[in-house]
Amino acid sequence: MKFALFGIAIYILSYYNYTTEAALALSNQKLQEQAKELQRSNNDLEQFASIISHDLQAPVRNVSSFMGLLKRDHGKALNPDAINFIDLSKNSVDRMANK
Q: How far is CA 79 from the centre of its chain?
């Protein structure tokens, strides 16, 4: 009788161990799939950011050039506040261009 109960207990523990390992393996597989999807998504976002950054460089350079031309050609006719605004704008655009 003791051996039969012992055998049943071993069977039950083995069954739960098997089901737990199977569930753990399935969870690990899902986690690996999610990690691959996250890596793919990150790669797509990096590529998108690179494209956007590249596409914005030309307008940023244009704004910087126009601010410089505005100050050079009309700086004497502008009041100090206007010149300050032009300088602030040009500095901000130049910082954008360097990032």
A: 43
